[in-house]
Amino acid sequence: MHYLVVDDETRLTDLVVRYLTESGHTADGRYDGPSGLTAARDPRLDGIVLDVMLPGLDGLEVCRTLRDEGVDVPVILLTARGAISERVAGLDAGADDYLVKPFAMEELLARLRALSRRRPDCSDRLRIGDLVLDAGQQRAWRADTELDLSRREFDVLRVLMENAGRVVTRLHLLDEVWDGETDLRSNAIDVHVSKVRAKVDRAFGRTTITTLRGRGYRLETAP
Q1: 4-aspartylphosphate (modified residue): where (predicted)?
Q2: How far apart (Å, rounded) are the C-alpha atoms in residues 193 and 80?
Q3: Distance of CA 90 to the CA centre of its chain
């Protein structure tokens, strides 16, 4: 899961980001409303931890703006007060849950997990490490960088990610990507895999896609 933490208490933000990372997730931190709103528009996010009191733009306005824009990522509001009126205001602004400071990290993570379970299944999204592909939007990212892929390149990457850790034969790629429009003697498959590798791996100094001579290709699960 990939989370965003927005709080002007830099120490707390960094602490939550580190805890989420050590718990096997990825997380980014922001320290004010405007930069938090910009980061919250990232379609790869699985949840947002958002403080109510933020400089530049408060958390309620950030949440309200996201909902007005159609962004449905789960939001947990952090508040220093437990007043009913403040909770109601947060929920009315579009938040999914709230947590009163100070809080236990274990409870925050449990609430994030609960929200993820209630969220509609994002079956169109594949994630292998920092490599993310959204089949519905036809977009892919490595870390924070969106990948510029042609339609064929996107489909090659999709098939490799769907079969991460397993060998994908040339015949399988032929059936899934070219739908029989070419044949195994053509170098189209090798050319497209090479282009995908250049954009997904070499541009980032990685080795994710490996060639298994005489067998096919494999996208490694631990690049």
Answers
A1: 51
A2: 52
A3: 24
Dihedral sign computed on CA atoms, order 65, 134, 120, 127: negative
Q: Is 166 helix (H, G, I), strand (E, B) or coil?
A: coil
Q: What is the DSSP pairing of strand 145-146 with strand 139-142?
A: antiparallel
What's the whole-model pTM score? 0.60
Q: Which long-range contacts (CB under 8 A, 24 or more apart) does 50-53 make?
A: 50/6, 50/7, 50/75, 50/76, 50/77, 50/78, 50/95, 51/6, 51/7, 51/8, 51/9, 51/77, 51/78, 51/79, 52/77, 52/78, 52/79, 52/80, 52/86, 52/90, 53/8, 53/80
Alpha-carbon distance 191 to 4, whole Å? 37
Q: How far is it, in rounded angstroms, from Cα 25 to Cα 44? A: 13
Place of tokens 């919250």: 40
Q: How far apart are CA 2 and CA 212, in angstroms?
A: 31
Q: At what angle do helices 59-68 and 33-40 cross, to 10 degrees?
A: 30
Q: How far apart are CA 115 and CA 113, in angstroms?
A: 5
Determine the Cα–Cα distance for residues 216 and 171; give it in Å rounded to an integer.
Answer: 9
**Range name among 8-12, 48-52, 184-188 with the lowest pLDDT average:** 184-188
Helices (H) and strands (E) in the chain, counts: 8, 11
- How does residue 127 score in pLDDT terms, banded at 50, 70 and 90? confident
